[in-house]
Design goal:
mainly alpha, 91 residues
């Protein structure tokens, strides 16, 4: 079972053995309706993400990718909206 949060929604997927389908769907119902955020797993994921960010700050390919994306996508916002309002056309 996995979930991904995006700007437009939350998406999930699940794989299971057919003999345990009922138990698997019970788990997904719990995950959707009563999510748990136990401190040890959350801190573990947080540490992993921070470690990845710090490692990428030193990796030449990651630095180049960030620079390339900033240059390529700088004027583009979500759904292609410009960062600043457009100037009015002269009459």
């Amino acid at each position: 079972m996995s979930f991904k949060a995006r700007r437009d929604g939350i998406y999930g997927s699940m794989r299971m053995v057919s003999e345990r389908q009922d138990a698997a769907f019970d788990l997904i119902r719990l995950a959707e309706n009563r999510p748990r955020f136990d401190q040890p797993p959350v801190e573990g994921i947080r540490a992993q993400l921070l470690s990845e960010i710090i490692a990428n700050e030193r990796e030449p390919h990651a630095i180049a990718e960030v620079a390339w994306r900033r240059r390529l996508l700088a004027p583009i916002r979500i759904r292609g909206r410009p960062r600043a309002p457009r100037k009015a056309w002269p009459a």
